[in-house]
Amino acid sequence: MPSLTPVPPARHLLRAKDLADARFREPLDVAALASAARLSPAHFSREFRRTFGETPHQYLLTRRLERAAALLRNTDRSVADICFTVGLSSVGSFTTSFGRAFGLSPTAYRNSHPPAASRARIPTCVLQAYARPQSSSFREDSGKRPD
Known about the structure:
By secondary structure, this protein is mainly alpha-helical. It contains nine helices and no strands. Helix content is 61%, strand content 0%.
Protein backbone atom coordinates (compact mmCIF):
# COMPACT_ATOMS: atom_id res chain seq x y z
CA MET A 1 0.00 0.00 0.00
CA PRO A 2 1.52 3.38 -0.99
CA SER A 3 2.13 5.82 1.82
CA LEU A 4 0.64 9.29 1.71
CA THR A 5 3.02 12.19 1.60
CA PRO A 6 2.30 14.77 4.26
CA VAL A 7 0.93 18.12 3.19
CA PRO A 8 3.24 21.03 4.06
CA PRO A 9 1.82 23.09 6.96
CA ALA A 10 1.83 26.27 4.85
CA ARG A 11 -0.69 24.61 2.51
CA HIS A 12 -3.23 24.45 5.35
CA LEU A 13 -2.56 28.09 6.17
CA LEU A 14 -3.31 29.05 2.57
CA ARG A 15 -6.81 27.61 3.00
CA ALA A 16 -7.41 30.05 5.84
CA LYS A 17 -5.86 32.92 3.89
CA ASP A 18 -8.07 32.13 0.89
CA LEU A 19 -11.10 32.04 3.20
CA ALA A 20 -10.22 35.49 4.57
CA ASP A 21 -9.77 36.83 1.02
CA ALA A 22 -13.05 35.41 -0.25
CA ARG A 23 -15.28 36.03 2.76
CA PHE A 24 -13.78 39.16 4.37
CA ARG A 25 -17.28 40.71 4.59
CA GLU A 26 -18.46 37.97 6.91
CA PRO A 27 -17.85 37.90 10.68
CA LEU A 28 -14.71 35.74 10.59
CA ASP A 29 -12.68 35.12 13.71
CA VAL A 30 -9.47 33.26 14.45
CA ALA A 31 -11.41 30.12 15.40
CA ALA A 32 -13.14 29.99 11.99
CA LEU A 33 -9.87 30.58 10.14
CA ALA A 34 -8.08 27.99 12.29
CA SER A 35 -10.82 25.50 11.53
CA ALA A 36 -10.29 26.04 7.79
CA ALA A 37 -6.59 25.34 8.31
CA ARG A 38 -7.41 22.33 10.49
CA LEU A 39 -5.30 23.67 13.37
CA SER A 40 -6.01 24.76 16.93
CA PRO A 41 -6.58 28.54 17.19
CA ALA A 42 -3.40 29.16 19.21
CA HIS A 43 -1.17 27.06 16.94
CA PHE A 44 -2.83 28.56 13.87
CA SER A 45 -2.16 32.12 15.05
CA ARG A 46 1.51 31.37 15.72
CA GLU A 47 2.03 29.59 12.40
CA PHE A 48 0.12 32.20 10.40
CA ARG A 49 2.23 35.00 11.84
CA ARG A 50 5.46 33.05 11.32
CA THR A 51 4.55 32.24 7.71
CA PHE A 52 2.93 35.49 6.53
CA GLY A 53 4.48 38.07 8.86
CA GLU A 54 1.23 39.31 10.40
CA THR A 55 -1.50 37.93 12.62
CA PRO A 56 -4.69 36.53 11.08
CA HIS A 57 -6.61 39.48 12.52
CA GLN A 58 -4.20 41.99 10.94
CA TYR A 59 -4.43 40.18 7.60
CA LEU A 60 -8.23 40.22 7.63
CA LEU A 61 -8.33 43.88 8.66
CA THR A 62 -5.92 44.77 5.84
CA ARG A 63 -8.16 43.04 3.26
CA ARG A 64 -11.19 44.90 4.61
CA LEU A 65 -9.40 48.26 4.53
CA GLU A 66 -8.15 47.68 0.98
CA ARG A 67 -11.69 46.95 -0.16
CA ALA A 68 -12.97 50.00 1.70
CA ALA A 69 -10.37 52.18 -0.05
CA ALA A 70 -11.55 50.87 -3.43
CA LEU A 71 -15.17 51.63 -2.53
CA LEU A 72 -14.23 55.13 -1.36
CA ARG A 73 -12.47 55.79 -4.68
CA ASN A 74 -15.10 54.27 -6.94
CA THR A 75 -18.47 54.91 -5.32
CA ASP A 76 -20.40 57.69 -3.63
CA ARG A 77 -21.57 55.44 -0.78
CA SER A 78 -21.37 56.84 2.73
CA VAL A 79 -18.39 56.06 4.95
CA ALA A 80 -20.69 54.24 7.40
CA ASP A 81 -22.19 52.12 4.62
CA ILE A 82 -18.72 51.18 3.36
CA CYS A 83 -17.63 50.34 6.90
CA PHE A 84 -20.48 47.84 7.33
CA THR A 85 -20.18 46.53 3.75
CA VAL A 86 -16.58 45.42 4.28
CA GLY A 87 -17.47 43.56 7.47
CA LEU A 88 -16.55 46.06 10.16
CA SER A 89 -19.01 46.98 12.89
CA SER A 90 -17.76 50.30 14.28
CA VAL A 91 -17.38 53.47 12.20
CA GLY A 92 -15.06 54.94 14.84
CA SER A 93 -12.74 51.94 14.80
CA PHE A 94 -12.91 51.87 11.00
CA THR A 95 -11.89 55.53 10.78
CA THR A 96 -9.00 55.00 13.20
CA SER A 97 -7.75 51.84 11.45
CA PHE A 98 -8.14 53.42 8.01
CA GLY A 99 -6.14 56.46 9.14
CA ARG A 100 -3.32 54.26 10.43
CA ALA A 101 -3.21 52.26 7.20
CA PHE A 102 -3.59 55.07 4.63
CA GLY A 103 -2.49 58.18 6.53
CA LEU A 104 -5.84 59.92 5.89
CA SER A 105 -9.34 59.67 7.26
CA PRO A 106 -11.79 57.87 4.93
CA THR A 107 -13.37 61.20 3.96
CA ALA A 108 -10.00 62.85 3.26
CA TYR A 109 -8.94 59.77 1.26
CA ARG A 110 -12.09 60.02 -0.86
CA ASN A 111 -11.56 63.75 -1.38
CA SER A 112 -7.99 63.12 -2.59
CA HIS A 113 -9.37 61.19 -5.60
CA PRO A 114 -11.62 62.36 -8.45
CA PRO A 115 -15.32 61.96 -7.61
CA ALA A 116 -16.83 58.67 -8.73
CA ALA A 117 -19.65 60.51 -10.50
CA SER A 118 -17.15 62.30 -12.78
CA ARG A 119 -16.06 59.08 -14.43
CA ALA A 120 -17.87 57.78 -17.47
CA ARG A 121 -19.66 54.52 -16.86
CA ILE A 122 -19.07 52.08 -19.68
CA PRO A 123 -21.39 49.09 -20.00
CA THR A 124 -19.72 45.71 -19.57
CA CYS A 125 -20.81 44.57 -23.04
CA VAL A 126 -18.93 47.51 -24.60
CA LEU A 127 -15.81 46.78 -22.52
CA GLN A 128 -15.90 43.13 -23.57
CA ALA A 129 -16.34 43.98 -27.25
CA TYR A 130 -13.48 46.48 -27.12
CA ALA A 131 -11.20 44.03 -25.30
CA ARG A 132 -11.85 41.22 -27.75
CA PRO A 133 -8.78 40.22 -29.81
CA GLN A 134 -8.77 41.62 -33.35
CA SER A 135 -7.49 38.46 -35.02
CA SER A 136 -9.31 35.44 -33.77
CA SER A 137 -9.12 31.84 -34.83
CA PHE A 138 -12.82 31.22 -34.19
CA ARG A 139 -14.76 30.42 -37.34
CA GLU A 140 -17.69 32.65 -36.44
CA ASP A 141 -15.28 35.59 -36.20
CA SER A 142 -13.74 35.08 -39.62
CA GLY A 143 -16.92 35.75 -41.56
CA LYS A 144 -16.47 32.47 -43.46
CA ARG A 145 -18.97 29.65 -43.39
CA PRO A 146 -17.74 26.26 -42.20
CA ASP A 147 -17.22 23.71 -44.98
